[in-house]
Amino acid sequence: MMIKGRVILNKKTKDLVKEIKVNEIAVIDHRDVDQIAASSLVEKQVKAIINLSPSISGRYPNVGPEILLLAGIPVIDISDGDLFSTLNNGDEILFKKGLVYKSGQIIAKGEELSREQVKNKNNQARTNLEKELSKFLDNTLSYIDKEKNEFFNIKTPELGIDFNGKHVLIVVRGVDYKDDLSAIKSYIREMNPIIIAVDGGADACLERGYLPDIIIGDMDSVTDYSLKKAKVILVHAYSDGKAPGLKRVKKLGLDYELFPAPGTSEDIAMLLAYEKGAELITAVGTHTNMIDFLEKGRPGMASTFLARLKVGDKLVDAKGVSKLYHSKIYYHYWLQVFLAILLPLSIVVFFSPHIKQLLQLLALRFRIIFHL
């Protein structure tokens, strides 16, 4: 296949999708393309993906490349050449017969993945899961042993929001988080929960008309627009004192609170709601299993295990709820609705002389027009 077009480059796919436009070529450096990244690229309707890292490394099965190919978006893995040093945003490139050209010069070599290759690579990756699971568990148990005391003694900041006895909705940028958020719209409308958005989860909330009460996280996947709309911004600071999102929030001139805590931002969002006295915590898009965490780039999920252990039965996980049930309208339902309308209408017509006269006039006019 020959592919030609303008390129947009960014080593972080989640940053690239903020700037790329329809029919442009995405140049990324993303080992094991995950479902969230792939779905974001599909939404942007990109022309093709050129990846400087293996889209499937074989470490674990990942569905990202399959999602892209099913959407008709070619995926090209580069085997030779550093496009980040030879290309700029907006440059025109041509990919043909395994070669990438710029201005007629070969600048890289690569392979376009087929659906058969993706299937075979993922089958091979599944044989590696036992090894990855063992490493994952070792890392998780090691973290629990070292960090459990610090994790359970987290001090939550004062925010001026009354959580006591209220429902809290936590929205995380995880698999199917947008669909799941839409699936619980009745719950949101009826219960009016306090909404805590974790990073990019804020964008999904605003897209559906929900204004987050709190945005918490590293601020690396949320848009400036959402940050400026937030009522409260909590910048996650880690145990070593680093707060990756602080610089960005300061640059935007926004008010914020620091929240020093170990673990992931979604974990401390749950702990915040719990410690502030929430009656029920509903979570959308959270990371709950080994594949989730490997896709997120984390070696273990100890903090998530500890957070869920502490929060206990106050937590309702709405991940995947959009796939639980799809409503179907059957023909007999439509027939029942039609009869329900027709019956009272017939009674009104039968007992109303004015309507009967009107219908007789319409019938007469119809016969005159069609010469009946």
From TrEMBL:
<keyword id="KW-0472">Membrane</keyword>
<protein>
    <recommendedName>
        <fullName>Thiamin pyrophosphokinase</fullName>
    </recommendedName>
</protein>
<keyword id="KW-0547">Nucleotide-binding</keyword>
<feature type="domain" description="SteA-like C-terminal">
    <location>
        <begin position="319"/>
        <end position="369"/>
    </location>
</feature>
<dbReference type="InterPro" id="IPR022215">
    <property type="entry name" value="SteA-like_C"/>
</dbReference>
<feature type="transmembrane region" description="Helical">
    <location>
        <begin position="331"/>
        <end position="351"/>
    </location>
</feature>
<keyword id="KW-0418">Kinase</keyword>
<keyword id="KW-1133">Transmembrane helix</keyword>
<dbReference type="GO" id="GO:0009229">
    <property type="term" value="P:thiamine diphosphate biosynthetic process"/>
</dbReference>
<dbReference type="GO" id="GO:0004788">
    <property type="term" value="F:thiamine diphosphokinase activity"/>
</dbReference>
<dbReference type="InterPro" id="IPR036759">
    <property type="entry name" value="TPK_catalytic_sf"/>
</dbReference>
<dbReference type="GO" id="GO:0005524">
    <property type="term" value="F:ATP binding"/>
</dbReference>
<dbReference type="InterPro" id="IPR007371">
    <property type="entry name" value="TPK_catalytic"/>
</dbReference>
<dbReference type="Pfam" id="PF04263">
    <property type="entry name" value="TPK_catalytic"/>
</dbReference>
<dbReference type="InterPro" id="IPR047795">
    <property type="entry name" value="Put_SteA-like"/>
</dbReference>
<keyword id="KW-0808">Transferase</keyword>
<dbReference type="Pfam" id="PF12555">
    <property type="entry name" value="SteA-like_C"/>
</dbReference>
<keyword id="KW-0812">Transmembrane</keyword>
<keyword id="KW-0067">ATP-binding</keyword>
<feature type="domain" description="Thiamin pyrophosphokinase catalytic">
    <location>
        <begin position="192"/>
        <end position="231"/>
    </location>
</feature>
<dbReference type="GO" id="GO:0016301">
    <property type="term" value="F:kinase activity"/>
</dbReference>
